Amino acid sequence: MPKPKLKPQDLREACLAEAAAIIERDGLEALSLREVARRLAVSHQAPYKHFASRDHLLAALVARAYAAFASALEARPRSSDPWADMAAMGEAYFAYARAHPRQYRLMFGAKLPDPADHPEMMREAKAAFGLLEKAIAALPRGPRSRGACRHDALFVWSTIHGLATILLTDSAQTIAMPRAALKAAESEALARIGAALGAPAGPP
Amino acid sequence: MPKPKLKPQDLREACLAEAAAIIERDGLEALSLREVARRLAVSHQAPYKHFASRDHLLAALVARAYAAFASALEARPRSSDPWADMAAMGEAYFAYARAHPRQYRLMFGAKLPDPADHPEMMREAKAAFGLLEKAIAALPRGPRSRGACRHDALFVWSTIHGLATILLTDSAQTIAMPRAALKAAESEALARIGAALGAPAGPP
DNA sequence: CCCTTGTAGTTGACACTGTCTACTTCACGG
DNA sequence: CCGTGAAGTAGACAGTGTCAACTACAAGGG
């Protein structure tokens, strides 16, 4: 009995959507190609016609996650003050990590396929990081080399990423950090990042 | 034919050692209870007499990793200057992450079993974090509440942990960050952390 | 002394997984 | 009309974690 027909590439799209749904609901470890196929009511081998391996499906998902992440960063409330703009970006970063913890872990936490094998994934990731570099280059701090900006960007990213990771994973729970200490951690970290980069003093 | 006898709990110890060896050599994803059993030339179910599940074995390994990590932090070269001492601790942190990347990922990166189910793992983790809190409390910055110190500790940990994670995982490779930018990142981050906490200016 | 009890280890099974190979279907272009 | 290639199916294989039932054996109580 022939299946109801799908347009070419429809199954590929459906696989990505279903896989994303599984991760969002049950986490990365619950994702399997066979489960995807099962939910789409196709044979367990059908997804292999569109993804060479599980890693390839994963890489495609990660690429999309980076793209969505970059969009969220770009959708931040804009400000004409470069310092405020960077703070807004930091807040957007935390907000995204909080709103989509699984996707955040998918991008940064999980064991990923080798980036060199998945150029599209790398391209999206670079684009996201480029937003941060741009915001930092716009800061009014006298002429700075591109290399210096990259150093700053790495520092800022490290700090925000580190805190986001800790807040997201069970690390804080593991060391029995009281919830109260986590509450203000985000804005505090952003303020300190600003201070470390030489921002003018914020509101009292 | 009876096996050559092992003292009670010997197999448990051997499992932990073998599992650690597997992770060190081939990474976490290569670890399986069956592979452990195979290498020890026992049946695939023997480890289950000592670990209720794969997660329980993992939790025991993580507890040991935390303990080793804490030892490495404590073995840092001591200094009578609290600021220098904290910097030394940061360097020891990075050094450990660099020397034992798999173990570091085991502690912070990987999907871990629920901490609440593994109190020993939590205890070791708290002990490690406590070292940082202690070093920060020793900083000469006028009287600070315990809560304030915890905030500082969380900030410092975030920054160091974030950078260590980025340096360790493929994240830097993913965004095609040039190696040169990574070279000085550690000491730079430590200097900025000091600045953010109000350290006196370092050597010119 | 026997007999129970508990622990450590064994074998066998089950339901999963990713992936390989071989087969079918079917639209399209010469 | 006929091939050709893409998409989907079916079956197999090795690997996994885990459950259940069985065996060997040391220790201890009656």
Briefly summarize what is shown.
The structure is a homodimer of 204-residue chains. The first copy, chain A, is an all-alpha fold.
Described by strand count, sense and barrel closure, the largest sheet of chain A is: none
Largest interface: A-B, 51 and 51 residues
* General form of chain A: globular
Cα-to-Cα separation, first versus last residue of chain A: 72 Å
What oligomeric state best describes the polypeptide chains here?
homodimer
How many separate domains make up the residues of chain A? 2
Overall mean pLDDT of chain A: 87
CATH superfamily of the largest domain in chain A: Tetracycline Repressor, domain 2
Strand composition percent of chain A: under 5%
Low-confidence stretches of chain A: 1-5
- Count all strands of chain A and give the number: 0
In CATH, the architecture of the largest domain in chain A is Orthogonal Bundle
CATH class of the largest domain in chain A: Mainly Alpha
Features:
homodimer; 204 residues; mainly alpha; Arc Repressor Mutant, subunit A; Tetracycline Repressor, domain 2; 2 domains; 10 helices; 0% strand; globular; DNA-binding
